[in-house]
Design brief:
By secondary structure, the protein is an alpha/beta fold. 37% of the residues lie in helices and 15% in strands.
Amino acid sequence: MIFEGGSFVKGVVLGGAFCMLVTLLGHIKLGHGTKAHHHEHHHIQAPNKEDVLNLSEGERMELSKSIRVYCIILVKPKDLGHWAAVRETWSKHCDKVEFYSSENVKVFDSVALNTNDMWAMMRKAYKITYERYKDEFNWFFLAYPTTFAIIENLKYFLLKKDPSQPFYIGHTVKSGDLEYVHGAGGIVLSIESLRRLSRVLEDSDKCPEQGGMIWKLPEDKQLAICLKYTGVFAENAEDSEGKDVFNTKSVSALIKEAMSTHPQQVVDGCCSDMAITFSGLAPNQMHVMMYGVYRLRPYGHTYNDALVFLPPAGSDND
């Protein structure tokens, strides 16, 4: 369920407070699709509450059913603790999730990619995803095992965005002339962007798997370069107040920063009420976040959300 207001951030902040304790002890203006060639980068925002309330009940129901998110988690055997935590927590809220591993691991089901290089892993994962699921899902979310995501907030953010347009969304970073989506915060591609990517991945001149200077770059930068050749450019995701919703740090780290820079407004200075991801979490912190985001509720308080995103049928989630 989507939380449209302070109730969500209270849960997140409480989860963050628990995360801080664990760390100390243990050491979404309505954005429509814009054709990529009209811009090299811009900020896109989530709908606000009024935008949703203006929709009819039938429109809300249709939209909530139409947004289907496939989750790609890139993992390695050394990530087993995080792998288990992601599997047991937020990934249950994806319409479908699959773990793409550098090698076959008997402990968990995964798609073995048989390479230890992160760029090669990302390429192969996207190619397999497109081949298998291009007709089943319209949005594709890639994350690392240290990322915690609130999938319902992602769906809310994507509510009025057209997946037939080339969206490449997340937390953008500028490196020289290149603007790219930082992998730590999660990467969202529309089906159109994934279609273009699958095509350019076959072009070894524009998007080589190895060799040349591009091979020396981190995988998230290499992805941006390949997408740029297809006319797809990085877009920074923000809520209706202009706050980032994809975060490359944990809640506890963001709270500590806010306590230093905005001591009188820690919550407002920390995070968006509609945050989609947090990164850099330990496995136990993911379970604490799960408690703060999905389980803790004030007794007698009613949530009057305009939309409900139902979990996948038969899923064992919170």
